[in-house]
Amino acid sequence: MGKGTFRTLPVLLLAVLTAVVLSPAVGHSFWYGNEISTEHIDELTAENLHQYIVENILDPPRPPGTPSPFADSLRGVDNNPDGITGLRIYKPEKTWDGYTLLSSLGGHLCDPPRGICNAILIDMNGEMVKEWLLGAVPAKMLPGGDVIGSVPERNDTGFRGSKTLQQQDWCGNEVWRYDNFGEPGGADWHHDHEREGNPVGYYAPGLRPYTDWGKTLILSHGYPGVIGTISTFPLLDDRIYEIDWDGTILFDWYAKDHFDQMGFHAEARDAIMNIQVGRPPTTTTDWQHFNSASYLGPNKWYGCGQGDLRFHPDNIIFDSRTANYMGIIARYDHPEGKWQAGDIIWKVGPHFSASYPEHKIGQIIGLHMAHMIPRGLPGAGNILVFDNGGIAGFDSFLPGMPGYYPATYRNYSRVIEFDPITLDIVWEYMDPVQEGDVNGDGEVKGDERKFYSNLISGAQRLKNGNTLITEGHGGRVFEVTYEGEIVWEYISPYEDGRAPRATDPNSVYRAYRVPYWWVPKYNNCDGEDPPWHWGYRHWGHWDWNRYNGGYNSNTCY
Asked: Are residues 323 and 239 in contact, defined by beta-carbon separation less than 8 angstroms?
């Protein structure tokens, strides 16, 4: 097929892009992991089309302070058109029951009033059980009812990190904190943290997150200034470090040191070099924006050291919302010299076009909470990730054109589970179209809704094989079966007007389902620690394993 056959491509593409902007209720995307060969479009046409996309779609002329129609389309349709919050669906015969910890960005005035509580525990009926005066990006519960979050104060750098990571008990008393011993910036943690004993911070049989001891993995920032081989702008870098219980740093890793291992092709590197990601007046470029970091944990790929060394349980998996990829960091040198500790030794993305193995997964955009499903849960060893959609990614729109950010777009979300070896999709959930009140009950809920959150969000595999999904933008949390049936649905009513402007006031950063027995039997906060609670916190390792079904840490899987 000759070049002349493709002369109509720009006209058709512009028509599609215009339709995307004018019809945001329908699932759309552009540059969805496909390639256009240079033989299909000449340089002049490519340059004109590139400029049209930038100037008329992504950044059209408009009055100051007015968002572009394209930016407005990112939010998609309202996922709660009837405005009813709280519990929407509950089919107890099909759910995995427990308590759900909301990391509420909207927050709630604590009871009694003493500030804004962002960590909120609800029961299966959507009723509040407990709340903590903690920041929650995210908050995570430990066995016995302790919660880890942040003291609600920012660091000293002016960026979005939190100065102090704090663990509170059921009654809100401080158990542990890390603030880098009062140094400027403090812990500077953002978006994720893990306590030793459980790789991802949610319930899995036989994997106990430690309460009174153990290491903590912290996702943080770095501020290296301008790195001339990466960007002309100062980097807002991502840092992952591990500390022991006393705050000694055991492992320290910076994204900037591993640029050449991230797999960016020339056009993407051009975009990273010349385009600032982030909003003025910030001078830095948020070139990675990691939003999750977790241990792989015990898994079938590694076994007892006889399997794939890329999946050592101590290795760390992370994801980058800005750059559309996820990777695994080695904690130890390879015995045959194939890599050194700190190297990125496995990745998916940042490119998903037909010449890359990732193409079979489909384009991932602005992802959140990529992690390996822990041992003991259905799908253990597979990767589970919330694929947001929205806009993200460094690339060029057309061959020969400069790199650009954002270069990928989709206005609906997916949750995907895939095999980390073959990259085959094992399970997928998406609902890209708003159906309306299909059953005529006067409410739009369940699969009548469009599934879309261009920011925040996450997914947790439950013990019964269901998946708990946080559609964070609109504060929607729901449990879905393997077959795609929504069996529990809740929309957060908590908002105090302080949620970030980019999200809805009731937005939920992430939600976790915990078993009933993680919460103290006696909700007693009169100053005396109930015997059951005390005994649970101080169980020995052998007693825990016996209670939890005979799990043996020396067993190979």
From this structure: no
